[in-house]
Specification:
Elements (H helix, E strand, L loop, with lengths): L3 E5 L5 H11 L3 E6 L2 H10 L3 E5 L5 H14 L5 E4 L14 H29 L2 E8 L13 H18 L4 E8 L8 H4 L12 H12 L9 E4 L7
Parallel strand pairs: 1-2, 1-4, 2-3, 4-5, 5-6, 6-7
C-alpha cells in the first residue's frame, strides 16, 4: 500500500503544494486544515488525498484527528508541520493571551504532532518529520515579539526531536524559508509591485521538502535554508 504523508496547515500555498508533490511521488496524503471548503477543493484536485478539518491549537482535537488518520489511512511515514499563525507588535503592545495562542499553533502543536506520528516511525525504523520555518526562528525584530519567539522555540524543539529520533531512524529537519512566498494573498496584500523572481514558489519549496524527506541516511540535513537567488542575506 502507498505510504501516507500527513500535512498540517494545508492552505493554498506551501501546504497545498506539498500535498500535490507527495501525491505525485506516490503518497496518499492526509491534509489537515481549518477550512472545510478548501479541503474539499483539494480532495477533488489531488488523487489519493483526504481532508480532515482540524484546528491544531485544539490539542485534544488534533490528537484525535491524527488517530483518525491512522485508523482510516494508516500510520504516516512522513509528517509536515506547516500550520502557522502570527500577530505583530512590540513587546509593550503584545497581548500575552495572543502570544500563548501563537506558541500553541507553532510550537506546542509540533510536539503533539511528534507524539502522534513518531512512535510508529520508530517502530518501523524509518520516517520523516519536516517543519516549515522562516527567518524569525533566527532573529527577533521589534514588532515580532509575539511571533519570533515561537518560531525560535519551534526550531529548537525540532532540533531536540532530531537528536532523539534520528538515531532511531526518524529524520527530522527544519526548513527556513527566507523569502516572501508566492501565494494568492501575498502579492495583492503585501508585495503587489514585485517581479516574479522576488518570490519563493510553493512548488519549489515542496520539491525541496520532498527531497529532504528522501535523503540517504548517510547524508541527512537538519537546518535547511532556501531563498530566491537574489535575496539579500
Amino acid at each position: 500500500m502507498a505510504p501516507v504523508c500527513l500535512i498540517t496547515g494545508a492552505g493554498d500555498g506551501t501546504g497545498a503544494a506539498c500535498a500535490r508533490r507527495f501525491a505525485a511521488g506516490g503518497y496518499r496524503v492526509a491534509m489537515l486544515a481549518r477550512t472545510e471548503e478548501r479541503l474539499r477543493k483539494l480532495e477533488g484536485e489531488i488523487e489519493g488525498s483526504s481532508g480532515y478539518f482540524c484546528d491544531v491549537s485544539d490539542l485534544e482535537h488534533f490528537t484525535a484527528t491524527m488517530a483518525q488518520v491512522r485508523e482510516e489511512m494508516g500510520a504516516p511515514s512522513t509528517a509536515i508541520h506547516n500550520a502557522v499563525t502570527a500577530s505583530f507588535g512590540t513587546v509593550l503592545e503584545a497581548d500575552p493571551k495572543t502570544f500563548e495562542h501563537i506558541f500553541r499553533v507553532n510550537t506546542t502543536a509540533l510536539m503533539v504532532l511528534a507524539q502522534g506520528v513518531a512512535p510508529a516511525m520508530v517502530k518501523a525504523g524509518k520516517g520523516a518529520i519536516i517543519v516549515t520555518g522562516n527567518t524569525s526562528a533566527w532573529r527577533g525584530k521589534p514588532r515580532f515579539s509575539m511571533f519570533a519567539p515561537t518560531k525560535a522555540a519551534q526550531r529548537i524543539l525540532a532540533q531536540s526531536m532530531a537528536r532523539d529520533l534520528g538515531p532511531k531512524g526518524v529524520h527530522v529537519a527544519y526548513v527556513t524559508i527566507d523569502a516572501a512566498i508566492d501565494t494568492p494573498w501575498t502579492r495583492p496584500r503585501l508585495r503587489p509591485d514585485e517581479p516574479d523572481d522576488f518570490f519563493c514558489k510553493p512548488k519549489d519549496i515542496a520539491d525541496e521538502i520532498f527531497h529532504i524527506a528522501h535523503q540517504a541516511t548517510s547524508a541527512w540535513s537538519f537546518d535547511v535554508e532556501i531563498r530566491p537567488f537574489h535575496e539579500t542575506w
